[in-house]
Every structure is written in structure tokens, then in C-alpha cells.
Amino acid sequence: VGAGARACTLLVRIGAEARGTASGYVVTFDDITELQAAQRKAAWADVARRIAHEIKNPLTPIQLSAERLKRRFLREITSDPETFSQCADTIVRHVGDIGRMVDEFSAFARMPQPIIRPEDLSRIVREALVLQRTAHPEIRYETDLPDHGPVVACDRRLLGQALTNLLQNATDAIAMVPKDGDAAQDPAGPAGTVRIVLRIEGAAAQLSVADDGIGLPEEDRQRLTEPYVTHKPKGTGLGLAIVKKIMEDHGGSIRLEDRPDARGAVSILILPVKDDHGA
């Protein structure tokens, strides 16, 4: 109930109760939302494993054949060499897209067990940002991070992967904004802004990634962390599912919200903080 409400699945049981001359009914409600989500995740992991196995094998020979056709016959085709070259390039490009999709299937189906060590969360964030700034110079990245810490018990590689997925989601959301949708935007300025903030709230670290992209969809927003649920035209629906799995394996969680002050969305990672005594 309210702005932060979430959809729940309830199992309702009704039983008759009789005591002496009085009779009535006992109604019980069990929240099985998480149970259903776990069952769906297990089923989709099995599907992803099978898809990855069946599709991965033919991809390499398809790509190599297309590249060889272009090298071998391009100079011999005189009628329309440009179309031949474009078709070969299209095959190679789409094989690459399928390969990346299969890699996501494999990552979701075979998520490794985390190797937990004390790690500096600010350092993990800065390392992830180095790659993003290099890959997306058109995006302005703003940070509000402490110089050091907080220290969290985590798998450095997996947590970095979760953060990279969120940063990529933010970049994709910015790219989905219609070009004429913001007349005030400076053509010479950045395509959009991603802001990363790290705060301590009680015994937990909250890492938020806010963007000024297209925002969360109105429909199915509660299911965006489930496998194969996406609102991106070319999305696989596995990025946020992988993030959720990583966070659950670390005793944390992920929360998705609308930006309160402007267009866009905020993704929040919540992790327990390791205290000074190693507890």
C-alpha cells in the first residue's frame, strides 16, 4: 500500500472451526512471492544452460565462414560487391550479438559461488568506472564517494560485475531517450549524466546509480529483476537478474526507483558493512 508498494502473491487457506455451539472459519494468508520467484529463477537457469549449449557451438563456424567468403570472393564479384560486403558484415555483426547474448545466458546459468573477502567498496566502484569512462566518453559520470571504505565482505569480481551491469543499464537508458525529447540539451555537451553515490545507512552500505535516461517502465517494473523481463529493444532481460543473484549471494539486495527530482531511474545496491572487529 502506498508509493513503495510491491506486488505480492498470497496463498489463501480457509478452514472451518467448530467449538461447542459456535462455529466459524479460520483464514490464513501465506506470502509465497519469494518462493515463486525462486522457482522461476531455477527454471530459467535450466533453460539458459540449454540455450547456451545449443547455440554456442555453431556460432564460430558461421562467423568464420562469412569472413572467409568476404576475403575469398569479394574481388571476384563485379556486379554488386558493395552489397556482398555489407551482407557478410551483417552476418558477422549479428553473430557477435548472438554470442554476447549466449555469454549472458551462461553467466546467469553458471553463476560461481562468491569468494568472500574484506574489500574496499569505494575502490571497487572507482575501478568499474575506469572502464565505463573509457567505453562511453559521451556520458558524464559524477561520483560522491568517500576516499576509503566502507569495507564490505564480498567477492570483488562479482560485485564489480554487478556494478558494471548497473552502469551499462544507465547508459542504455540514456541512449533510449528520443533525440528531440530534450530541446534544452546542448548538442556539444554530454549525452547524459550518471551519478554514483555511496552512503552508510545503519549497518549497511547503500550504493546508488542514478541516470537521466528514459526511466522505469510503468508495466512489469516489479519484475525487472526476474530473468528475461526487459523493456530494452535489444535487451536479454538477464542483466538485472544477474545483479539480483549476486546481491542475494552477498546477503544484500537491489532496489529500483524513479528519480524523485527529474527524469530517469535510480538503482540501489544494499550490502552489509563489515565492522572494525571483523564481524
Automatic annotation (TrEMBL):
InterPro entries: HATPase_C_sf (IPR036890), HATPase_dom (IPR003594), His_kinase_dom (IPR005467), HisK_dim/P_dom (IPR003661), HisK_dim/P_sf (IPR036097), Sig_transdc_His_kin-like_C (IPR004358). GO terms for molecular function: ATP binding; phosphorelay sensor kinase activity. SMART domains: HATPase_c, HisKA. Gene3D superfamilies: 1.10.287.130, Histidine kinase-like ATPase, C-terminal domain. It comes from the Bacteria. Pfam families: HATPase_c, HisKA. Residues 50-275 form the Histidine kinase domain. This is histidine kinase. It comes from Nguyenibacter vanlangensis.
